[in-house]
Amino acid sequence: MKNQSLNLESVSHRFGNLLAVDDVTLSVEPGEIVCLVGPSGCGKSTLLRIAAGLEPLQQGRVSIGSEIMADGSLTVPPEQRNVGLVFQDYALFPHLSVRDNIAFGLRDVTSAEKRERTELALERTGLQRWADTFPHELSGGQQQRVALARAIAPRPRVVLLDEPFSGLDAELRHQVRDGAAAILRETGVATLMVTHDSEEAMYIADRIAVMREGSLRQIGPPDDIYLQPTDAFVAAFFGDVNRFRGLVSMAGVETPLGRVDTNGFADGTEVEVLMRPEAVVLSDTEGTVATVKNARFLGRTSLIDVTIGDGEAIAVRIRVAGRQLPAAGTRVFVRRSGDQAFIFAPGTPK
Ligand code: ATP
User: Alpha helix (H) ranges present in 125-197?
Assistant: First the structure.
């Protein structure tokens, strides 16, 4: 079957008075993985359920390729959409072995192909040694992998995943994620995946869609989302940010960490400047004088909180690679590293 895109057009959805999805338009191309991220309750799962047909469409249109799945007048039932699903409440067939669970959806193929696809899905999800066991003998994480293997084995047109790796420990998570991404890309399926983990989205997604309160705030490749967030909310979703306020003058704004160039803001405009902790560094020789408040070693990085100035001191958070733990009270210099700073007009969403 020809690879096809998933298209959501102007989709809105209400639960009573709550506008859970607010006019979302989003396409996922064949072979593409799009991650939906956003705070809890922002409408990610509802959007996925609408795409799957598990939630009746109230407004807008859902199509796969040129085929309409749901609009004002028509609804294709979920089982006829040729969509692979892995939802949080995945249900495996309890009376079937892992292998048979995976093979279950492989209907219109030869038995040789059925065997081959099942074995491939078992291998890619690291489940070979569990092939002959039954769901009740598996841990939650293992069951989740079976659900994933079962969804992708029939090579559906579209795969919808809701937190598919959440039950797995870190090592297994990497392994299963890589295996799943490889199969999804190989088969040219359009994948829409919900995750609450922004790093996971950065790792796996071709594009990330950031949602807030039902609406889509920004969609783009991970680089764009991280390096060119369209508002303070998107910038802050990917980790802590230092926030400073300042007035634009001579095309720049003064911050406690030096002057930042501005673009497109008139002199006198009050702006908010955001800097990620990793865009600030400690220096032995130059920068703004600061005092270490505390420092914590997190493994790959250390977080150092400093204050600038006396009295109403300004707090700044710094993230450095490896283990660097200056004692509380130490006087240090801090400065920006590179030019990564985001400038927004006040009133843009936090
Ligand atoms: P999470 O990350 O916590 O899973 P989410 O972004 O997936 O959240 P949704 O599950 O889509 O969010 O929920 C969006 C909003 O709609 C929430 O405020 C939720 O309480 C509400 N909601 C979801 N399902 C229903 C329902 N069946 N009836 C009423 N309200 C619902």
Answer: 140-152, 170-187
> Is pLDDT at 141 greater than 80 in this prediction?
no
Atom 31 of ligand 1, nearest CA residue: 15
Domains in the chain, start-ordered, CATH in brackets?
6-236 (3.40.50.300), 240-344 (2.40.50.140)
DSSP 279: G
CA distance 130 to 311: 62
Cβ of 49 below 6 Å from ligand 1: no
Average pLDDT score, the chain: 90
Q: What's CA 207's distance to the chain center, in Å?
A: 9
The protein residue whose alpha carbon is closest to atom 3 in ligand 1 is: 40
pLDDT tens across 73-128, in order?
899 999 889 899 888 766 899 999 999 999 988 888 899 999 999 998 898 888 89
Task: Output the six-digit token pair for 235.
Answer: 């910038």
Q: Specify the residue with its C-alpha closest to ligand 1, atom 23.
A: 46
Asked if 292 and 330 count as a contact pair (C-beta separation under 8 A), the reply is: yes
Out of 8, 46, 54, 237, mutate this one to test ligand 1's pocket (max ligand atoms within 8 Å of CB): namely: 46
Backbone angles phi, psi at 137, to 5 degrees: -90, 0
